[in-house]
Amino acid sequence: MTKIELEALRSLNAAFLTARYEWQSASTLWDRLQSGGDVAELHEAQTTFPFYGQAVQEIASGATAYERHVALIAWRYTAAAVVLGVTVLQRVAEAKPPLSATTVGELCQEPTLGRLHEALSVPVADLLPEHEHSIPNEREDTARRWARVRDGVADAIEFVLEIAADEDEAHPRTKDEAAGCLLTQHCPPHTDPTYHGVLEPLFRLAEEVPFDITRIIKKG
Q: With contact defined as beta carbons under 8 Å apart, do 116 and 150 qualify?
């Protein structure tokens, strides 16, 4: 692995891990406020003053916006880390020439949903060498995990189409057009999150890829 590839992966890793922790913290806060709202409803059923519930709702509104804001930042860096990581992994496994600085820079940007789906379709499990101590069904388990995330991205592409139809937007109108979109630009605040169910497992793949690259390098 070249110096520029390593530096880019390290930087993206630090970025998405920071965003991940902030997102998890924001999600915990939102959950707590939801519980607070339930308590407020019970409390105010016996009073004419609604201030308790109003306060919780006002705080929760800001927490919801922050949670989505951080999640989209996390998505941008995590998706880029996966695409760059898979590209480097495949390059190393197949002994291809190093990536140029320009290519690395381009891969550090948020990928389209279609580009991410393409990266998740690379048979990573087949490119990895066997562990020194054999792990039963390791390749099959790895392939299944990658397939689940790939399917989640495919669902996100369909969701982008649904949102566009509901909003009566001119773009996108076909699956190919949706695949060419950036998720961060198609997650309106009044809709369910486009990244729902995909972001957390994507984190795990992004964390694994650098270790997988190291396994390949060590195996020679």
A: no
